Amino acid sequence: MSKPILLSSPNLEGNEKKYIEEVLQSPFLAAGGSFLEKFENGFSPIISPYNLIALNSGTSAIHMALVLLGVSAGDEVICQSFTFCASANPIIYLGAKPVFVDSEEDTWNICPIALEEAIKDRLKLGIKPKAIIVVDLFGMPAKYDDICAISEKYEIPIIEDAAESLGSSYRGKSCGTFGKLGIFSFNGNKIITTGGGGALISDDVKLLERGKYLATQAREKIHYFEHHAIGYNYRMGNVPAAMGLGQLELLDEKVSKRRSVFTNYVKLLHLCTGLSFLEEIEGAYSNRWLTTIQIDEEVSGFDREMLRTALESAQIESRYLWQPLHMQLAYKGIPYYGADNAENIFKKGLCLPSSAHLTLEDQTIVAKVILNLYQKASISNV
Ligand SMILES: *Cc1c(COP(=O)(O)O)cnc(C)c1O
Q: What mean pLDDT, rounded, does the chain reach?
């Protein structure tokens, strides 16, 4: 049997092993080692004049961002509904309340019109939301011209969830740097990985310094343990940072490979009418973390589940898009603004294998399964 083709698997072809070996020889395995500093500094060329601190997950980075903006019990925070649960869960950890907003068709990210409608309605109810969580889903930048203008107009800060969009940019500005605070994730399937990890980003040095303090158990800088605040154990260790540095050194390559995975699929599948791909809007540059397709069942003759199972039988992993949070039981009763864009995109969508090290041969195998299904479906349609 041939090897399965996975959705998004990591690739350690750089200096990861060498760096990890180096840390293991040192007494500094936890936070505070030299690799942590090197890893953090390695982001400067991408995010400058913003800075970054490395944390132990993207989820804890979102939690930290909310804490730094003073979000507490009873507050409301606006959040894109079409996203992974980790964008919204930290709001609930704090006893605060999410308000979900629909996506727009161009970018699949938060719809500026629905966002403003949500803000106006919350204000009318006498509630001013404390923050807006914007996600760059699947690596595609959100429509920041409009979203930043709304954030400024209503003086509500943005937290940019750039967990999936390290290496993406909009009008030449890197994703992660559009809000008061931003976050990256270095989970196993993301564009670069530290096994598990994340980062908090800001251009406000004081705020980030406060984040570092709170993420290190709010430990005062004295030789014994004295605490003036309740902190968190959220800092990244030196071992994952060593791995992260090896990964970060090859970021450009990983992004250009994922982008060519996308263009290869477009070429390989161009005969399959009924399938469409998400285009970049003017000014947008996507890292193409995952290649996603939309299936118009009436034209293609098959839906996402038929395609997913056909791929699965050929040992190819594909996955539905993130299920919008407002559709899910865990978030029942949470206010939602917008129409049914996110829901429609979700129902027609599928993520295809998109690892940076995916070969053209593997992609051809994936495309053959899709084209076979298309042929069978169109014969049975006649
Ligand atoms: C992966 C992801 C996160 C969470 O990151 P972790 O490092 O897994 O905690 C948050 N938001 C989005 C959109 C993600 O894809």
A: 96
Task: Among 164, 183, 325, name the best residue to mutate to test ligand 1's pocket (greatest count of ligand atoms within 8 A of Cβ).
Answer: 164
Pick the CATH number of 251-380 from 1.10.3720.10, 3.30.2290.10, 3.90.1150.10, 1.20.120.1760: 3.90.1150.10
Mean pLDDT of 301-315: 97
Average the pLDDT over each of 19-33, 153-167, 323-337 and give the range with the smallest value: 19-33
- Strand intervals (E) in the chain: 51-55, 76-80, 97-101, 131-135, 158-161, 169-170, 173-174, 181-185, 198-202, 275-277, 284-285, 291-295, 336-337, 349-352
CA of 198 to the centre of ligand 1 (A): 8
Classified as helix, coil or strand, 302 is: coil
The fold adopted by the segment(s) 16-248 is: Aspartate Aminotransferase; domain 2 (3.40.640)
Looking at residue 280, the DSSP 8-state letter turns out to be P
